[in-house]
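Hello,

Our lab assistant flagged a job as stuck in the queue for most of the afternoon. It eventually completed. Since we weren't sure the result was trustworthy after the delay, we are filing this so someone can double-check. Below is the sequence as submitted and the structure that was eventually returned. Let us know if re-running is recommended.
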Amino acid sequence: MSQIYPGEVFANTSDFDAGIRQLLPRYDEMLEVITRCVPSTSRKILELGCGTGELTLKILKRCPDAEIIALDYSPRMINFAREKVTSFGYQQRWSGKEADFGEWASYPDRFNIGTDFDACISSLAIHHLTDEMKQNLFTRVYESLIPSGCFWNADPILPSCPTLAEVYKLAREEWATQQGTTLADVRARIGSSSTYGYSSQDQLATLDAHLQMLRQAGFSTVAVPWKYYGLAVFGGIK
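-- returned structure --
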């Protein structure tokens, strides 16, 4: 198994876009929901963990005046996302910074990314932080948004009981079968990830725990616009 950063998932970057769609049920629908929750008039958006740029592209297409600053500690992912963004002609509206957003949460002064964001978005990244760091990050996000700014996150969630864990697992297995593969085959392409910076392997929290953290961070409106078995889009409006 190839050694990879937490969040890179697959040993070969070229496997990511197809592999993640086999691994996670309704991946595109999940990203589409985040995209719809971000106001189309947004101008300044922060993305925590850009991955291969799939969410980035959807947001840039929906928000014609938006510029995105993306923080990701993986040079491999930033380069992949940059190439994709450039191929669609959006390179003037996107900047990828090689940075650990866990570190940004703790030491924002080390990063020259500013505040007053209209929106903050993230997908499949924050679940690599401990709950204490998640809370720290949500608070930092809240402080970095304009009044009425929003934060939306798509992530796997911790099943609240063993019965649900089994249900969620079966849903993913059935999804992989529908895609013409098996969960075992998809997982065979996954690399071995170690701890890096503030992130390590999956450190899931329940949906209720996430919503409590968002309220604790200051968000008066918290919501779950989408949930499908063990995946959810959740967030808040300042």
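-- support follow-up --
The delay was a queue issue, not a problem with the job. The result is valid. The chain has a mean pLDDT of 89. The beta strands are 3-4, 44-48, 67-72, 94-98, 117-123, 145-156, 192-193, 221-228, 231-237.
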